[in-house]
Each structure stands twice: as structure tokens, then as C-alpha cells.
Write a structure and sequence with these properties.
Strand order of the largest sheet: 1-2-3
Distance between the termini: 42 Å
CATH superfamily: BolA-like
Helix content: 25-40%
CATH topology: GMP Synthetase, Chain A, domain 3
Strand content: 25-35%
Number of helices: 2
Order of helices and strands: HEEHE
Structural class: alpha+beta
Radius of gyration: 13 Å
Largest sheet: 3 strands, mixed
Number of domains: 1
CATH architecture: 2-Layer Sandwich
CATH class: Alpha Beta
Number of strands: 3
């Protein structure tokens, strides 16, 4: 439990589900970097990234997390790959 009884952190499956909801063809690998459900490294591969800059690709993923970045999800190191 975090401050004021609010549970902090997200499970890998929760993160994957949110990304898949917005990017259905995504192939996702996520590593919990600190074992605390708060610091992750993710690789997301999708055809939806084609024709987009890295910034646009990352925005698609961060938008999929529905505002959880910086809150319940503290840190996410992100790599995006265009799926050919």
C-alpha cells in the first residue's frame, strides 16, 4: 500500500492489457526492473507504428496507459519497433 492507503504499482498483465486495448496487434515484452511493480522496461512491436516518428510511437503507447504514467505506474523505459 502506498500513501493514504492507495495501492501503488501495476502488474505486468495490467500494463499489457491496456496496451493491447489500444494497439490490438502489439507484441509486448515487459520486465519489472526493480521488483516493485513500479519500474518497468517494455518493448512494443506493432504495424500501427509504421510511418510514425519514435515520439508518435511512444505517444501511442503512453496514451494507451490512460494517464497512469507518473501515478500508479512510476517509470516505464519504452522501446517501440515497427512490425513488418
Amino acid at each position: 500500500m502506498g500513501k493514504k492507503g492507495i495501492e501503488m504499482g501495476m502488474k505486468v498483465d495490467e500494463i499489457k492489457d491496456l496496451i493491447k486495448k489500444s494497439i490490438p496487434d502489439a507484441k509486448i515484452e515487459i520486465k519489472d526492473l526493480a521488483g516493485d511493480d513500479n519500474h518497468y522496461a517494455a518493448t512494443v512491436k506493432s504495424k500501427m507504428f509504421e510511418g510514425k516518428t519514435k515520439v508518435q510511437q511512444h505517444k501511442l503507447v503512453y496514451d494507451a496507459l490512460e494517464g497512469r504514467m507518473g501515478g500508479i505506474l512510476h517509470a516505464l523505459s519504452l522501446t517501440t519497433i515497427i512490425d513488418n
